[in-house]
Write a structure and sequence with these properties.
Helix content: 55-70%
Order of helices and strands: HHHHHHHHHHHH
Shape: rod-shaped
Structural class: mainly alpha
Oligomer: single chain
Distance between the termini: 160 Å
Number of domains: 2
Number of helices: 12
Strand content: under 5%
Radius of gyration: 46 Å
Amino acid sequence: MDEQIQSQSEPVSTESSFAIPEAYKDKGWIEKIKSPDDLWKSLDNAQSLIGKRQIPTNDASDDEWNQFYKAAGRPDEPKYEFADPEGLPEGFDTSSFKEQAAQILHKAGLNTKQANKVYQEYLKLELDAAGKQGTQKEEQQKALDEQFVKLMKEHFAEDEDKYKELTKTEFNKHVPQSLKETFAKLEDMPDVLTALMAYTKGKQGEIDRVIKAYTGEGSLTSGQQSTGVAIAEVNKEWAKLMTSPEARDFTSPNHKQTMARITELQGILDRNKK
């Protein structure tokens, strides 16, 4: 009876009966758990942290979101230590890009590790896109160069430089100053440039023929002694009109009228040849 009373009065040692289950003995956090009281404290702290890290709702205030971002590790100021990805071109300056990225990523609430990862991945995408764009431009330029060579060979043989320079001269002579930079862009339009050069070649051929006839190298007046004086005047007018700015410039308001007179004079000269 005394033993029973004594047994009931002695406190039961809970610590002596506390044991860590085998499944959790290797966990790092278990080192601080020595008693049931430690276990309850640890659980209470975990629940408190979960409450602090709970993601705010979409309609939460900016203050709530800022508190969440801070708890998630976002720095107080938009300052991150970004590490550049490998493969950047030599001398490539990323300072301005880093400044802009820091502002954007800080507003998004990212911590240092998250921000650095986003920065690196985005920069890789930008470099890859720039590389593909550069390759595409090189291929386009190569195709244009090949087209230009083909057209020049087809239409001008060995006279490419001659008629290209003549075309440029005519272009600068008749095109307003504000539009003269357009000629440089024609380098990327082989078909348009070739058409202009062909036009110049045709006009130059007519001019050369006029000069030859006007200097007496041709036979427009030979054998026509009875009408030589009249034909000479026709030939002179024809030569003058053929070399006139109105004839050479198809944009001139007098171009159409001048060409009509040239055609009329040409008919007289052709009939005189027969």
